[in-house]
């Protein structure tokens, strides 16, 4: 390892030790945390099953940066590149439309065999897999309704898709020896004020009950449900609102998924974690960055990301929280987008682990809010960067912005030739 990186690390370690912070132990803990990197940043949420379908469901990937993956092989190569620039061993989050098959198969008939190449690749690379039924970008969701649809036949199709997805997810878990989290998000909602808000929610509840009816081994597979405030074209009413899924998750022991972009603009998910953790079986995060709306910008090391890290660490919530990413920016290099967002998420966790949590707690309990504020502010300039650099070097990935040259080279050699 570069001697300067090591020297800086030793100095930083001493400084943190003065507050009883064991940096080596923090790095050990950090190395165990898996981030679920979402495949859909690699191709603007197109997938491979229905090439001619436009992205729908009230979400949008804007931009036309060259080099998007066009095949499962290209997507896996891009993911390999991204993972080579990110410290730690992680997971990949797949959507059903990313099936790797030459068969013409519809969503309700998907089976594990359509994802076997993904499983084999994940196994060969020591990665885990997570899964999502894709309840959008399909002719049967063209009016923006799926599991809550008034038409029984359409509901049946989507229920069968969720059922099929759960089996695939459980196979991921079984074959890879690590739990697969399957997240259900449906876009269902109305552009304008509904006459009936209750009916669609009753139908969504019944559909979910049926789709989740079969007991599956929880060490292989966990169900999660994701709420939303509004989507493009569903501005007035979303069936699966936060209250809906909080109720559903609590009543049915499902993980509750909090997407950072799915709440009112000043509402933050960091402030929900401690409260939810007291009642839920588990939490799934969709770490994202809303800019004015659920824009799914690449995650930066902003206050909210740092606060999410703090809440997870201070509340000891890492054991019951699954951390997934959810952004899709087509205006920049897509491999870089993954690397930036994932490295930032790991950085936020490390920053949180290097805080003088005990001293802050004691000050708070003693009513010494002056010390609480003073320490919080002073720690913002503690040598966190030296620890991060050491962690990257030790993990065999580029230190600081060195990764960018690798992405630029990959762009020249691979992405621009597509
Ligand atoms: C593609 C994802 O499933 C999707 O982004 C969903 O998680 C969501 O957040 C929709 O706004
Ligand atoms: Mn999401």
Automatic annotation (TrEMBL):
Reactions listed under catalytic activity: L-rhamnopyranose = L-rhamnulose
Cofactor(s), by name: Mn(2+)
GO molecular function per UniProt: L-rhamnose isomerase activity; manganese ion binding
The membrane spanning regions, by residue number, are none
Keywords from UniProt, A to Z, are: Cytoplasm, Isomerase, Manganese, Metal-binding, Rhamnose metabolism
Q: Name one GO biological process term.
A: rhamnose catabolic process
Q: Which GO terms describe its cellular component?
A: cytoplasm
State the Pfam families in the record. Answer: RhaA
Give the enzyme class: isomerase
Which pathway does the protein contribute to?
A: Carbohydrate degradation; L-rhamnose degradation; glycerone phosphate from L-rhamnose: step 1/3
Q: Which residues bind Mn(2+)?
A: 262, 294, 296
**What InterPro entries does UniProt report for this protein, alphabetically?**
L-rhamnose_isomerase, Rhamnose_isomerase, Xyl_isomerase-like_sf
Q: Which NCBIfam families match?
A: PRK01076.1, rhaA
Query: What does the function comment of this entry state?
Result: Catalyzes the interconversion of L-rhamnose and L-rhamnulose.
In the record, the note on similarity to other proteins reads: Belongs to the rhamnose isomerase family.
Q: What's the protein name?
A: L-rhamnose isomerase
Q: Which organism is it from?
A: Cohnella fermenti
Its organism's taxonomic lineage begins at: Bacteria, Bacillati, Bacillota, Bacilli, Bacillales
């Amino acid at each position: 390892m570069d001697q300067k990186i090591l020297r800086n690390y030793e100095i930083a370690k001493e400084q943190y030790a003065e507050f009883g912070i064991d940096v080596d132990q923090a790095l050990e803990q950090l190395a165990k945390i898996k981030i679920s990197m979402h495949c859909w940043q690699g191709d603007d949420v197109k997938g491979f099953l229905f090439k001619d379908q436009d992205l729908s469901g009230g979400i949008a990937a804007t931009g036309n940066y060259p080099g998007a993956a066009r095949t499962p092989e290209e997507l896996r190569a891009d993911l390999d590149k991204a993972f080579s620039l990110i410290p730690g061993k992680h997971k990949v989050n797949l959507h059903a439309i990313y099936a790797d098959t030459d068969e013409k198969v519809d969503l309700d008939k998907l089976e594990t065999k359509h994802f076997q190449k993904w499983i084999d690749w994940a196994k060969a690379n020591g990665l885990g897999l997570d899964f999502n039924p894709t309840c959008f970008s399909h002719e049967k969701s063209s009016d923006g309704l799926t599991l809550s649809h008034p038409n029984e036949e359409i509901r049946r199709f989507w229920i069968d898709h969720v059922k099929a997805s759960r089996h695939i997810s459980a196979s991921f878990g079984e074959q890879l020896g690590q739990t697969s989290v399957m997240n259900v998000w449906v876009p269902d909602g109305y552009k304008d004020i509904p006459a009936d808000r209750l009916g669609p929610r009753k139908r969504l509840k019944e559909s979910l009950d049926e789709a989740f009816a079969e007991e599956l081994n929880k060490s292989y597979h966990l169900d999660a449900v994701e709420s939303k405030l509004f989507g493009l074209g569903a501005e007035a009413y979303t069936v699966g609102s936060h209250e809906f899924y909080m109720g559903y998750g609590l009543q049915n022991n499902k993980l509750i998924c909090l997407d950072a972009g799915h709440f009112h603009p000043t509402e933050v998910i960091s402030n929900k974690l401690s409260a939810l953790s007291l009642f839920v079986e588990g939490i799934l995060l969709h770490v994202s960055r809303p800019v004015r709306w659920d824009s799914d910008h690449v995650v930066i090391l902003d206050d909210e990301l740092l606060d999410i890290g703090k809440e997870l660490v201070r509340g000891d919530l890492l054991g019951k929280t699954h951390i997934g990413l959810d952004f899709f920016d087509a205006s920049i290099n897509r491999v870089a987008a993954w690397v930036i967002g994932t490295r930032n998420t790991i950085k936020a966790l490390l920053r949180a682990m290097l805080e003088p949590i005990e001293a802050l707690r004691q000050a708070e309990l003693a009513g010494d809010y002056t010390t609480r504020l003073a320490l919080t502010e002073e720690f913002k300039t503690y040598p966190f960067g030296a620890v991060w650099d050491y962690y990257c070097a030790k993990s065999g990935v580029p230190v600081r912005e060195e990764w960018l040259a690798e992405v630029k080279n990959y762009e020249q050699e691979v992405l621009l030739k597509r």
